[in-house]
Structures are given as structure tokens and as C-alpha cells.
Amino acid sequence: MTSKALSSVLALFVAAPHLATLRQHGGTRALRNLAAIAPVETPRLDVAASCEHKAAKGRILCDIEFEVPDGRIAWADVMVVSAPPFAKPLRSRVGVLDARSRTDRRIHIPVAFVAKESGRGAVAFRGRAVVCAGGAGKEACAPIARDVAAELRVGADEGH
User: Fewer beta carbons below 10 Å: N end or C end of the chain?
Assistant: First the structure.
């Protein structure tokens, strides 16, 4: 929580008459203590997507990679937000239990599509994760979502 956000919360807290009882019992001090342990900013999460290029219709795999420079990824999943009409996802949500590889800082989750015909189009994903930073009993976790896109290509490339 930034100091500006904390000031806004404290201003609301002090101004709200129905919270007078809580103010009398140390509620303001509790909010200040919360600011001391709250993360200053949302942890960084990088999400990237790539898809195989297939020469013929059939199964196509896309790989969604989650990576954090610091901390760890406690949980993650991928949702298919949109897909071109020629390729349908086998599952619209794929969780971390289906990951191809996983470390504390990097996860690769595959998403499979079935292409019924040739085509080229964008597929959109939403990567969601819970990222934790800190340690020694002071770990703070935050949910983060990132939207990414990749190109699905099935069939011969024309003009390439």
C-alpha cells in the first residue's frame, strides 16, 4: 500500500463518525501498523504466450510462461479468453497441476487447441497467479492477472 493510499484510508477512517468506537480503541494505530507490514507495491509478474505452427489441422499446443524476478509463484492458472473460429480450446482453463515445468519463480502451462481447418488468428489468454514476496515469517502474497495474446497458425504460410 502506498503512503498516498494509506493516507486516503486513514482520512476516511478518521472522518467516518460510525467508526468512533473503533478509533477510541486503537484502530488508527492498527491501520498504521498495517502500513508497516503491507507491501509497498504489487509484485512483478511477467506472462508470455507462444503457440506452435502446424502445417495441417489437428492438435496445437500453446505455452504460457509465468515468471517473477523476486519471490515465488504460489498458484497460477490460464484462461482462454478468445480463440479464432477454426481452433477450439480443449479446456478453457488450465491450472498449475498441468504445468510442464515449475520452479518457485517460473511456471510453463500448456493449453491445447484442436484446429478443424487451416487459418491464422489471435488467441487471447488471461494468466492469473498468486505471487508471494518476503520471507522469514513476513511473506506477503498478492493476486495478479495479466492478459497476453499469441498467434495460431495452421496450414502453409502464403507469401512467406
Answer: C
Cell of 122: 489471435
What sign results for the dihedral spanned by CA atoms 78, 111, 120, 50?
positive
Residue with cell 484462461: 79
Instruction: Give me 8's grid cell.
Output: 486516503
Question: Which segment of 27-31, 114-118, 130-134, 136-140 scores lowest on mean pLDDT?
Answer: 27-31
Cell numbers found for residue 90: 480443449
Where in the chain are the domains? 3-37, 46-154
Helix axes 3-15, 27-37, angle to 10 degrees: 170
Domain 46-154, classified CATH 1.10.10.10, yes or no: no
How far is the C-alpha of 156 from the C-alpha of 129, rounded, in Å? Answer: 36
